[in-house]
Each structure stands twice: as C-alpha cells, then as structure tokens.
Amino acid sequence: MHFEIVTPEQKVFEGEVSSITFPGADGSFQVLNNHAPLVSLLKEGFVEYKSKESKQQVRITGGVVEVLKNKVILLADGLAV
C-alpha cells in the first residue's frame, strides 16, 4: 500500500509499505493492505511502518490519518525530537 507522511513544513516519507502502526487517540492500531476506509485522530507517539527493505519509525506530536483504497496519508502536526 502507498504511504505518505506530511507535516506543515515538508513531506517526510512517501513509499510502499506492508504495515503501519499508529498511536490512535483511543489506543494504538495497525493498518494492513486492503484495510477498510478510516479517518482517525492521532496522539503523540511513534508511527512504525514496514517496507520490503526495513522497519522504520517516526515520532509525531499528533495528527490525523486517512486510509482509503490502499492509500494512507498521515497529516502530522509535527515531528517530536
């Protein structure tokens, strides 16, 4: 599935991934290929995503994620240091 991470300043990541774990407002959740459509509020925490090459993570300060037709867009408030 296609995944994008966007902050107000820049596009942080764009590429194909096999799974993504988000820090949801009501608890963490995972998105896999062919996931049902979803819009969710995110709290501060780690977003972990797996591609064929590696597993990566980025810490966000909060945001919103949209999942639709194997395209996942994360609009992050910002990245935590």
Defining traits:
single chain, 81 residues, mainly beta, ATP Synthase, domain 1, 4-stranded antiparallel sheet, 9 strands, 64% strand, globular
Structural description of this entry:
- By secondary structure, this protein is an all-beta fold.
- It has a single domain (2-76), classed as Sandwich (ATP Synthase, domain 1).
- 0% of the residues lie in helices and 64% in strands.
- The chain has strands spanning 2-6, 11-16, 19-24, 27-32, 38-42, 45-50, 55-60, 63-68, 71-76.
- A five-stranded mixed beta sheet has the order 2-1-9-8-5, with no helix packed on it.
- A hairpin with a 4-residue loop joins β1 (2-6) and β2.
- It is globular and about 30 Å long.
- It starts with a strand and ends in a 5-residue tail after the last strand.
Helix and strand arrangement:
Elements: E1 2-6, E2 11-16, E3 19-24, E4 27-32, E5 38-42, E6 45-50, E7 55-60, E8 63-68, E9 71-76
Parallel strand pairs: 1-9
Antiparallel strand pairs: 1-2, 3-4, 3-6, 5-8, 6-7, 8-9
Number of domains: 1
Q: What is the fourth-level CATH superfamily? A: F0F1 ATP synthase delta/epsilon subunit, N-terminal
Largest sheet strand order: 2-1-9-8-5
* Helix-strand string: EEEEEEEEE
CATH architecture heading: Sandwich
Question: Would you tell me which CATH topology applies?
Answer: ATP Synthase, domain 1
CATH class: Mainly Beta
Distance between the termini: 27 Å
Helix/strand-derived category reads: mainly beta
> Tally of extended strands?
9
Helix content: under 10%
Which word captures the global form?
Answer: globular
| Uncertain parts | none
Q: Count the helices. How many?
A: 0
Evaluate the radius of gyration: 11 Å
